[in-house]
Amino acid sequence: MQNDIFLQACRRLHVHRTPVWIMRQAGRYLPEYRAIRSKVNFLTMCTTPELAAEVTLQPVDTLGVDAAIIFSDILVLPQAMGMKLIVEEGKGGPRFSEPLRTAADIQKLIVPDPCQKLGYVMDTIRLARKALNGRVPLIGFVGSPWTLANYMIEGRGTKDFLSIKTMMYSQPSILHALLDKIAQSAIQFCEAQIQAGAQAIQIFDTWGGILTPDDFKEFSLRYIEHIVRSIKKPDVPVIVFCKGAGFSLKDIAEIGTDVVGLDWTIDIGNARTIVEGKVALQGNLDPALLYAPPEKIREGVKIILAKYGKGEGHICNLGHGIHPDTPVEHVKAFVLAVKEESVPYHSY
Amino acid sequence: MQNDIFLQACRRLHVHRTPVWIMRQAGRYLPEYRAIRSKVNFLTMCTTPELAAEVTLQPVDTLGVDAAIIFSDILVLPQAMGMKLIVEEGKGGPRFSEPLRTAADIQKLIVPDPCQKLGYVMDTIRLARKALNGRVPLIGFVGSPWTLANYMIEGRGTKDFLSIKTMMYSQPSILHALLDKIAQSAIQFCEAQIQAGAQAIQIFDTWGGILTPDDFKEFSLRYIEHIVRSIKKPDVPVIVFCKGAGFSLKDIAEIGTDVVGLDWTIDIGNARTIVEGKVALQGNLDPALLYAPPEKIREGVKIILAKYGKGEGHICNLGHGIHPDTPVEHVKAFVLAVKEESVPYHSY
Fold this sequence. Notes:
The structure is a homodimer.
Chain A: H1 5-10, H2 31-37, H3 42-47, H4 49-63, E1 68-69, H5 76-81, E2 85-86, E3 95-96, H6 103-108, H7 114-117, H8 119-132, E4 138-143, H9 145-154, H10 162-170, H11 172-196, E5 200-205, H12 213-231, E6 238-242, H13 249-252, E7 259-261, H14 268-275, E8 280-282, H15 294-308, E9 314-315, H16 328-341
Parallel strand pairs in A: 1-4, 4-5, 5-6, 6-7, 7-8, 8-9
Antiparallel strand pairs in A: 2-3
Helix pairs in contact in A: 4-8, 8-11, 9-11, 10-11, 11-12, 14-15, 15-16
């Protein structure tokens, strides 16, 4: 491995500067991504290992980030479980045409053999590892059971999440049966990704933050913990990112994960105090700051580095996925600012 | 005043049970509201004092809540400042047809004389006070400068708030000029509402939670504080509700407000510890829980009452506005549960 500072930082070991990567870094803001995307649809990109591996490497080449993350979508797992995934151009993100409604719907879902149903993801990982040739580590990922259940029950992203919440409050045992099935599927999927060559796993809990703290623990965090403890291996760090769930940071730091991702609504200095050295922290620049001029972006980076302070265990990233129309020069300015400004925080 | 437990609780004085009202309680979930709404459009309802006063009283009659809140919309203030407000049936909420883009756009806005430009709101207050005849107190309200600025710059509610954030990060002084102008307008508007008979004022900061803690203080909380300290009178309590800003609860409790509203992502027991007796707390049942059967709603109420614990300074409410298609019987069950279950917490 030529550059393993990302993996070192995940383990809170000494690095010469803070590593940086960007959530959704293989994406539409990159012209070379749009060049490929203009020829094929989103799902074809996900399911064609050559294309997925190619876009996985683009931000490494263009931005010089310290980790690659496979190009895929969290919804490929529910699809492999038996849900019908649809992407219509210009009609918002992917959605499920037959959202789950009843216990019988959930009963019908399978716990898929990932090598059989999601082999294209593992092929992407193998191709990307080969193409990376040890330049930077490769991250695999999965959606959290709560977040995937949201899409599976609502059909698509919603504002109020009333269908899943009605099920949660009225028939919690049905929802638990679904969450358990997703967790089992996610564990096998993560293990297959690691087997294929993923060197870290990030669990995305995009919607944990819409719950009360008690419900977050019962319906989201316990399933994430089950995944983390099941897939944990000494040499493959796990990152847990629960957007909007800063209220439960102390709890998240105690489920055995190596790294906790932070959105931008948390002060990373306070967060470091709260997690008491149990985990590394990843984040947390507001993605909207990348629309500002480069000197403002650098200021934002300096503030986050100063808030985290001296010492190890920080991976710089945005607090959420990068917006599709972010100017690419600004993204480069962000990466460069982290590389340049972080050095003093690691010399002591 | 026949029932002033809401006002007493705002001041953390002794009450025999916990008062309860519901954000957006004069709304579409009520059949008697829909009966009026079917005949006139939303803005006509807001600007016709007889109709606005009538729907203001409906939840008092139907649900037996302990406070009325005038039927209006936070966007009438920007409209009075010179923005063009449009409501098209079936095309989402109200929006501004010419969103603010430049310093010149902001320069053109006026600080309106509320009695001249928003007289219908003050007329609504006078009519509602007369019709209430001392049954329960009447709450007036205003949007926070940050939240109003969001709508004024984005044009309507958005997912990512990129226009206002770009202005905030790139040209903060322009945004501050706007926020200052809105704050001045809001102060005069609140004072006119109090003059007309509003017995409490709630400041709604729906979008404070999309900011970093530092930016929340600079761009939202300082303007709310300016309003609170300007309008403060010993007999008119102020409630500040910043949705999603639980990360700044300690700061919010220190701006001179009497009551802090909580959304459901905060544990109200922890919140009570954090605010250290400086303010009363209002909230915080997840509005989605009102889709569950009445016995589950009662369970949810019991949990919140138990978390807050014995003693004064709690006003029960939802953690956000009620959803428009909530079953009205469930809303009644919520109000009744608070009235019945809260008694023991006030006898000691």
